[in-house]
Design a protein that fits this description.
heterodimer, A: alpha+beta, Rhomboid-like fold, four-stranded antiparallel sheet, 8% strand, B: mainly alpha, Serine Threonine Protein Phosphatase 5, Tetratricopeptide repeat, 3 domains, 16 helices
């Protein structure tokens, strides 16, 4: 299941300035990472350790701390990782930005990203492995979308026996599908130390951080939400 | 709920900032017990209309004339009322003089200001009906005049005359009524758009608005309004949240390790955030009126200055925490290079 596009129109703004800016920054950061990797693998490992979020370093008050917590949000481990996150940000971020405004959207994005990083660090507190990726923040944006537009119609690519179909699905089906996927693996990682290269707790942390959206909604959007009016 | 319980509950609600609920409880209380002095005193602080405040205090003073605080507050409110009326009378006189001098645009501005301060000023609305250049605004002003005082045959005749015109944009008029909470009038205007010779887009817009208004009238669900203070607090928390998380991460998720400098920043961010949010979102909030006078935030320059100050107050602590983080990162990076080699 791959969400492709949000089919609903915006109410307040026509261009998702901050969503596009965030996507551009992430892409540029990925290109920079790629250039560093091509220069030498040691430099790349150093880059990931210094600018990624390493739980033992964060808890031991070493490394970049707050700065790394921000930079890790803009780094990705591969093209698929980047493409998946940016597609989700594009699909769900536009209308969330519409109801917050660009600058509050940026603050919300950073807040959920940081919250996801905190949850991820606590869940693997003794790990020296750096964590990178915008997934936590993107899951936060998805949660915000679910809260505000649960019935939004998302054009989604699904495969049924290798036959591609692209129906419009309700947002709650897609978002809950992605969240429910995380829960069993996250608990396996936490309780049974299962190996996983994906930060499932960062995803769940980001998702629950999506509740912060209420602090970032525009006054008029908040009024409409409270009165159950179409947003 | 017993009488003392009801009163206690109302006070508790008022102290928690739930003014409307507290006011409703107290109104219920004084309805059954008009001799409850303290209920009247609390009510005087919870009603919005200055006139109602005065009545509540007068009632409290009648019940107990031996409470000097009530008398002092009542006197202050009466003086404020007098000053306000004087200001309004002055504005009206200015508008009249400007009109006589042929400076109609300025006269209109004075009257617009006056009705924004005192929406029940019938004469000001009547004056606006004469001075507004747009037909829709003239109709709106006359409708408001007649709503406030239906016994105005001249206004009524003038309104009928204006309504004969085929130049009225009923979509604009409908929106004006809708924005001012007059749903029935708005629905009537939208219906005229739907039946008239308007573009399909305008008709679709009018239909959408009409259906929405009809559904709200049908459900009779009162709109829940968020108090400006709640808005201020809600929006102020955003930057604080981000700052707290950054500081928390920088201190190794240990609140006891937060440096005093960053704690100081923690005080600057809420102040800056409050300024920025206040100037950007609630220029009519009573805190800002108290801070800058009733006209303070109408001045764009002053508002921009305050917003800028707020932004600086927010950005400084953020810059500080990131600078501290950068220094630590640089030290770690140097050590990391050493490890690799």
């Amino acid at each position: 299941m791959i969400p492709l596009n949000d089919t609903e129109p915006n109410r307040y703004t026509s261009f998702p300035f901050m969503t596009v800016t965030l996507i551009i920054i992430n892409v540029f950061m990925f290109i920079a990472q790629d250039l560093v990797m091509e220069s030498s693998i040691e430099s790349y490992i150093k880059l990931i350790h210094v600018y990624g979020s390493v739980p033992v370093l964060m808890l031991g008050e070493e490394g970049g701390g707050a700065l790394s917590a921000i930079t890790q949000m803009f780094m990705h481990g591969g093209l698929l990782h980047l493409a998946g996150n940016m597609l989700a940000l594009w699909v769900f971020g536009r209308r969330v930005e519409d109801v917050t405004g660009p600058w509050r959207f940026l603050a919300f994005y950073l807040a959920v990203g940081l919250f996801a990083d905190i949850i991820s660090t606590v869940s693997r507190f003794d790990s020296p492995i750096p964590g990178i990726g915008a997934s936590g923040a993107v899951y936060g944006v998805m949660a915000a979308y679910l809260i505000i537009f649960p019935k939004g119609r998302i054009r989604t690519l699904v495969f049924i026996s290798f036959i591609p179909l692209w129906p419009k699905l309700r947002a709650y089906w897609i978002i809950l599908y992605f969240v429910l996927l995380q829960i069993p693996i996250a608990f396996q990682v936490l309780l049974f130390d299962a190996d996983s290269s994906v930060a499932h707790w960062a995803h769940l942390g980001g998702f629950f951080g999506g509740l912060f959206i209420f602090f970032f909604l525009r006054p008029d959007a908040f009024h409409r939400y409270r009165n159950e009016l179409p947003l | 709920m017993s009488l003392p319980d009801l009163f206690r509950e109302a006070v508790k609600l008022a102290k928690n900032g739930r003014r409307v609920e507290a006011r409703n409880l107290l109104l219920e209380l004084v309805d059954g017990n008009p001799d409850h002095e303290l209920a009247w005193i609390w009510l005087s602080q919870l009603v919005d209309d200055p006139e109602d405040r005065i009545i509540a205090l007068e009632n409290a003073l009648t019940i107990n004339p031996n409470r000097p605080e009530t008398a002092v507050r009542l006197e202050t409110l009466r003086q404020q009322k007098q000053a306000r009326e004087f200001g309004q009378a002055d504005l009206f006189q200015q508008a009249k003089q400007l009109y006589r001098d042929g400076r109609k645009a300025e006269a209109r501005q004075r009257l617009q200001k006056l009705v924004s301060q005192e929406p029940k000023h019938t004469k000001a609305w009547l004056g606006l009906a004469l001075l507004e250049p747009k037909l829709e605004d003239q109709i709106f002003a006359l409708e408001t005049t007649l709503l406030l005082n239906p016994d105005q045959p001249k206004a009524s005749r003038k309104l009928d005359q204006l309504k004969q015109s085929d130049q009225i944009d009923y979509l604009v008029l409908g929106k004006k009524f809708e924005d001012n909470g007059r749903a029935q009038k708005a629905i009537a205007a939208y219906k005229k758009v739907e039946k008239g010779t308007y573009s399909n887009t305008d008709k679709a817009i009018a239909k959408k608005h009409r259906l929405y208004l009809e559904s709200t009238l049908k459900e009779k669900k009162p709109l829940k309004f968020t108090h400006p203070t709640t808005h201020l607090i809600r929006l102020t928390i955003g930057p604080i949240l981000v700052y707290v998380m950054l500081v928390f991460i920088q201190s190794g998720l240990n609140p006891l390790h937060i440096s005093p400098l960053l704690l100081l920043g923690g005080m600057m961010v809420p102040m800056g955030s409050l300024l920025l949010v206040g100037t950007a979102n609630t220029p009519h909030h009573h805190w800002w009126k108290r801070l800058l006078g009733p006209e303070g935030l109408a001045e764009v320059k002053k508002r921009k200055m305050m917003a800028l100050l707020g932004l600086v107050l927010i950005m400084l602590p953020f810059a500080l925490v990131l600078l501290i983080a950068f220094n630590r990162l640089a030290a770690y990076e140097a050590a990391f290079t050493f490890n690799i080699n």
